[in-house]
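Predict the holo structure. Ligand: copper (II) ion.
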Amino acid sequence: MFRVLLLVAALALAACGEDAIPEANDEPDVAVDQDADEDLEDVPGENLDDCAEVSAAEGAPAGLTMMDSFFEPPCLAVSSTQQITLTNAGNLEHNFSVADGDIDIDVESGEEATTDEIGTDLAAGTYRFFCEYHEEEGMVGTLVVE
Ligand SMILES: [Cu+2]
């Protein structure tokens, strides 16, 4: 009995296989294309609208998480009086460096570090930040100091 059920199931799979595969492919293809477009728009530094959404409350440290190997969020807006708390949730050691700034902080896996008030090192403006170990892998982001 069990064998018969298996055979029926196998036949059913084979029977609907040809019809189902094109349908199954159509929708994912569209979704993948949309994702690809969004990814292009989300290149760090290219879409500053994202930064507003992650602005932390005035005075509270802004959180930035280091993963293997990217920053979350990729765009961070802070006031000059805010600090940034760096949390390394990855398995690798990561680094937070700001181009044209004096900030260069290593954070071991599972550890946390907090910057000085951002205004101490950076004037208001938009900066590129990166992990000096994984910059070439795209571990970069945008920091807006307001
Ligand atoms: Cu890194």
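Helices lie at 2-41, 49-53, 118-121. The two ends are 72 Å apart (CA to CA).
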